[in-house]
Amino acid sequence: MMKNRTFTENDYNNSRTDYPIKLFIPQCDFENLSSKLATYDWKNLIYLTKFNGAEYMFESLFTVIINNINFFKVLKKLKPNNYPKKKNKMWYTDNLRKMKEKLLFLSDLIKGNHNQNVSLRDRYNELKYQYKKSIKEAKLASNVNYIEQSSNKCKSAWHIIKNNNVQVNNFKTNIDPDTFNNYFVNSVNEVKRNIESSVNNVQSHELLPAIVSNQYFSWKNITPENVLKAIKKMKNSDSLDFYDMSNNLLKKIALSLVNPLATCINQLLKEGVFPRQLKVYICPI
């Protein structure tokens, strides 16, 4: 039997500690969430929203999904990692260590000779160049090996990039996705208006070779099987998106959603609408 886990002020006060708090849905409740979504009257939802446009239909469907996910969320205390981060020195080989020791030895010899021995100084500079080059090669080989052995190569690559990037201050922009998209769409019309062509549209069309195509485009509706197949092809991952949904969670609840999703996707494609809820993303860096 599923019980309501609506949070009260007492729950929040009892959970307050020096540790940060996060809401999440346990994997043991994935099946309960799927069952709850399966019992929802999706046909009635589609019927009530189909006359208000595809975007409203998707928003209503998406709201039901998110509300049900929030129903099963629990509080989790995140303990901070108080251990100092150790730099990864797996790439530092014995050969590099010996080269460094030799560099220090040559440096001491040069200082003892008051930098007068030219051959020692040349040898030191040559070894220093080789040492720096070997470090770069060792780091590169270590990074390649780290990525190749990882089950999620893309995530491992981003991890390396993030650790080697200089920290910069992020800034937010007030430009919404629609404004950004419309700017580039309208820029094409602006360019067309500014072009002065000596050949009108009719003449341009007459200059083109006449091509008779034997291929015809036919529209086919998306089926629930298509939606389920696409979801199953997603990579197994517990990484959360902006709405605290993961690939693994979506796979668990897929059978409860494929029918309304297929109907909604067909309506979105028919009207040429991309829902605003899917225009939100989390930057990986």
TrEMBL record:
Q: How is this protein named in the record?
A: Reverse transcriptase domain-containing protein
